[in-house]
Amino acid sequence: MQNGTQIWCALACGWCATNDADGWQEEDVGTHNPPAIQATMRSQDTQAERITFGVELETTIPAMSGIAVGGYHCGAPVQFGAEVATCRTLPAPTFNGNYWRAERDGSIRFDSGHTACEFVSPILKGTAGVEHMIQFVEWANAIGANVNGSCGCHITVGVASIIGTNDPQAVSEYARKLAHIARWHAMSLYGQTGTGRHLNHYSHVLEDDVGALVKRMERVSNPTRKADAAHRCGRGMINFRKLFSDGVIEFRVFAGTLNRHKLLHHLATVLGLCRRAAEIECLGAFSKNKSQAKRTATAKDALRFLWDYLGWTGSKRPVALGLVGPLHAEFNTYRRIADRMCRRFDSRFPFANL
């Protein structure tokens, strides 16, 4: 297992990794299990079925995979790939007839015999979209796609599909609420990756200047000034730069992965926080209060706070916010992976204080 060769873990969670992945890959981090959830979980969130989302998976692929990788932001459609085990041609799954696209990304490291490839999904939606994402990840693993420490996973959501309007003022108010709650839950978002993603320049924690900018974005009435404030927020754990041009918000907080259970927890977190932001009426401070700080002192504790906050555990919400289809059905499986990653994060970054 040297020189970046693959480590294929014969685990139920199906991890696929390299040995230079900067700590993201699955390892034995203890036998701890998260506390039991209620026997009957809260029902699915039917309103989350309307949310449109997209997924970008930064990977490396075998040079002989048969996949044509297009340029940056002008990717080639992913139609076929060569299965590693048999070399037979595997058709790539499509969503409503739309292909994923393969793009070049200069930030991705790769070894000899491989090449960088960022897989960009078509616009997905609801249970069908979640199921399709799983199918594509299975296909990507079959053709030998892999990730390392230079890879990320980005999830983009359509704001109008969440709040029902593209009115600039409504969009501004919503984005400010989402920025606040993402800041409060930063420890659980980074923790569930198990990596040092918070140290990456392009996925850093939202600083106080972002709090001031989203406040300004909400309070000014001129659309140009709103867009300028959104653009000046930069590309941290959440990217607001395309909020007014394309009506989307991008989550950049997650590390690269091709594991279905990690991806399901990441997507569930995004959809849950987006739904929660739509329900908030009284917005707290951008910084955490004393109670929030206490409940998020470690990543494993912050994860439980996140689950409770979104109604996935406990009894504070009438539905499990953001959870539809596999996100709801497989929660009891992928929550254990997230808990394990948070414990690993705590052991690697005991003074993170996010």
Could you explain the architecture of this structure?
The protein is of the alpha+beta class and 354 residues long. It has one domain. It has 11 helices and 12 strands. Helix 3 packs across helix 7 (260-279), helix 5 runs antiparallel to helix 6 (223-232) and helix 7 (260-279) crosses helix 11 (331-348). It is globular, with a radius of gyration of 19 Å. The chain starts with 5 loop residues before the first strand and ends in a 6-residue tail after the last helix.
Concise description?
This protein has eleven helices and twelve strands. By secondary structure, the chain is an alpha+beta fold.
Q: How many structural domains in the coordinates?
A: 1
Shape: globular
**Low-confidence parts:** 1-31
How would a crystallographer describe the biggest sheet? 8 strands, antiparallel
- Overall pLDDT confidence: 90
- Count of extended strands: 12
Taking all Cα atoms into account, the compactness measure Rg is 19 Å
Please bin the fraction of helical residues.
25-40%
Number of helices: 11
Layout: helices, strands, pairs:
Blueprint: E1 6-8, E2 16-18, E3 52-62, E4 76-77, E5 80-82, E6 89-91, E7 101-103, E8 114-120, E9 124-125, H1 126-142, E10 152-158, H2 159-163, H3 168-184, H4 186-191, H5 208-219, H6 223-232, E11 238-239, E12 248-255, H7 260-279, H8 290-295, H9 299-309, H10 326-329, H11 331-348
Antiparallel strand pairs: 1-2, 3-8, 3-9, 3-10, 4-7, 5-6, 7-8, 10-12, 11-12
Helix pairs in contact: 3-5, 3-7, 5-6, 7-11
